[in-house]
Design goal:
Structural class: mainly alpha
Helix content: over 70%
Number of helices: 7
Number of strands: 0
Distance between the termini: 12 Å
Oligomer: single chain
Order of helices and strands: HHHHHHH
Bound molecules: fe (ii) ion
Largest sheet: none
Number of domains: 2
Length: 182
C-alpha cells in the first residue's frame, strides 16, 4: 500500500476538495462539514510545516497556510446560508486551490526528485503521525471536530486494501489503518 508522503498529502487535498464541493452545493450538514474541514486543514498544514517542509524551501507555502487559516477562521465564524458564509467559502476555496496547485506542481515534484523511496516513506509516516496528533488535539474538549469521517476512513481502507473493511465500524477502521501504518 502507498504510504509515501506524496500520496498521503495528495489524498488529503482531494478530500478537502470533496468537502469544498459539498459546501458549494449546500449538501449535508454545513456546520459539521466546516468543522471537519477546519480540523483537516489545520492538521494537514501543521504536519506539512513540522515534518515535510523542513529541508525544502517552503517559506512561501508557510505564508499561504497563514493566509488560508485567516480565511478559514472567517468561515468558521460565519452562519451557513448567509452571504457572509458564501463569500468566506469562495475566498477560502480560491486561496487553498491556488496553494494546492503550487504544492502539487512545484513543491511535491521537487521533493520527489530530492528523496528516494525509503525517505518518502519515512516522511509519510512522520507526516501522518503529526497529523493524527493534531486531529486528536482539535477533537478534544476545546475543539468541535472529530477527525476523519467514516466515509473518509472507508476510502482510505479501500486504498490500503484492508481485509474485512466493509464490516468494520468507524473506530475499527481507524485502528486498522493505524496498524497498517506502523
Ligand atoms: Fe498540502
Ligand atoms: Fe500546504
Amino acid at each position: 500500500m502507498a504510504t509515501d508522503v506524496i500520496t498521503l498529502i495528495t489524498q488529503d487535498h482531494r478530500v478537502v476538495e470533496g468537502i469544498f464541493d459539498k459546501l458549494k452545493k449546500r449538501q449535508g450538514d454545513q456546520k459539521a462539514l466546516v468543522a471537519e474541514l477546519h480540523a483537516l486543514l489545520i492538521a494537514h498544514a501543521r504536519a506539512e510545516e513540522d515534518r515535510v517542509y523542513p529541508g525544502i524551501d517552503a517559506h512561501h507555502s508557510v505564508e499561504e497556510h497563514k493566509e488560508a487559516e485567516v480565511l478559514l477562521d472567517s468561515l468558521v465564524r460565519a452562519q451557513p446560508g448567509t452571504a457572509e458564509f458564501a463569500k468566506a467559502l469562495d475566498d477560502l476555496i480560491e486561496s487553498v486551490n491556488h496553494h494546492v496547485e503550487e504544492e502539487e506542481t512545484k513543491l511535491l515534484p521537487s521533493l520527489k526528485k530530492a528523496a528516494d523511496a525509503k525517505e518518502l516513506e519515512r516522511l509519510g509516516k512522520a507526516f501522518w503521525e503529526r497529523r493524527a496528533e493534531e486531529l486528536q488535539a482539535l477533537g478534544g474538549p476545546a475543539g468541535s471536530a472529530d477527525g476523519p469521517t467514516k466515509a473518509e476512513l472507508n476510502e482510505r481502507a479501500q486504498q490500503a486494501d484492508i481485509p474485512g473493511r466493509s464490516q468494520m465500524g468507524k473506530e475499527e477502521l481507524a485502528q486498522a489503518l493505524r496498524d497498517t501504518k506502523s
